[in-house]
Amino acid sequence: MRVLGVDPGLTRCGVGVVDGAPGRPLTMAAVGVLRTPADAETPLRLVAIERGLEEWLDAHRPEAVAVERVFSQHNVRTVMGTAQASAVAMLCAARRGLPVALHTPSEVKAAVTGSGRADKAQVGAMVTRLLRLDAPPRPADAADALALAICHIWRAPAHDRIRRAHAAARREPPTPRPKGTIPS
């Protein structure tokens, strides 16, 4: 499976492509950061991110896109920019019919390091180790994008089983049990 990980942000949007499967070695296909000038108007910055993501999707042809789920921060301006960049990533993937998965920062940290409270240095070190790189990707946004892709590769089978079970439950009405029986 080839996954494009996106660590959304208006100034720096980390992107990373990882190939792999659960229980098998992972390989980094590409990593980078899409940058926009902080003094540019937000709509123009979003267009630049959209163009950059489209180029990455064209160049690397991922089978899925993993985006960091936006979480509440004290700085509303920062969270708004992050949410807007996240929406652009989801839009680009959906336009191509690619599945999109949202992973929380703590979920990604736990998947990659074993601790949902790991710091950026620990995430970078584990990404370096898991992908057998010479050095951690810089800046941290790039390492975070790779961590998102790794998390998705490892967790996608479980997420897919849950999604299929929910879909089946919506299609099939529950079977009534005769009165007085105990569920097994």
UniProtKB/TrEMBL annotation:
GO biological process terms, semicolon-separated: DNA recombination; DNA repair
Sample GO molecular function, one term: DNA binding
Active-site residues, Swiss-Prot/TrEMBL: 7, 68, 141
Predominant localisation class: cytoplasm
UniProt KW Membrane keyword: no
Record keywords: Cytoplasm, DNA damage, DNA recombination, DNA repair, DNA-binding, Endonuclease, Hydrolase, Magnesium, Metal-binding, Nuclease
Cofactor binding description: Binds 2 Mg(2+) ion per subunit.
Superkingdom: Bacteria
Subcellular location: Cytoplasm
Binding site for Mg(2+) 1: 7, 141
Region annotation (Disordered) ranges: 164-184
EC numbers: 3.1.21.10
Enzyme class: hydrolase
Known catalytic reactions: Endonucleolytic cleavage at a junction such as a reciprocal single-stranded crossover between two homologous DNA duplexes (Holliday junction)
UniProt: Mg(2+) 2 binding residues: 68
GO CC list: cytoplasm; Holliday junction resolvase complex
CDD domains the UniProt entry points to: RuvC
Co-factor(s): Mg(2+)
Entry similarity comment: Belongs to the RuvC family.
Assembly, per entry: Homodimer which binds Holliday junction (HJ) DNA. The HJ becomes 2-fold symmetrical on binding to RuvC with unstacked arms; it has a different conformation from HJ DNA in complex with RuvA. In the full resolvosome a probable DNA-RuvA(4)-RuvB(12)-RuvC(2) complex forms which resolves the HJ.
Biological role: The RuvA-RuvB-RuvC complex processes Holliday junction (HJ) DNA during genetic recombination and DNA repair. Endonuclease that resolves HJ intermediates. Cleaves cruciform DNA by making single-stranded nicks across the HJ at symmetrical positions within the homologous arms, yielding a 5'-phosphate and a 3'-hydroxyl group; requires a central core of homology in the junction. The consensus cleavage sequence is 5'-(A/T)TT(C/G)-3'. Cleavage occurs on the 3'-side of the TT dinucleotide at the point of strand exchange.
Protein name, entry field: Crossover junction endodeoxyribonuclease RuvC
Organism: Streptomyces radicis
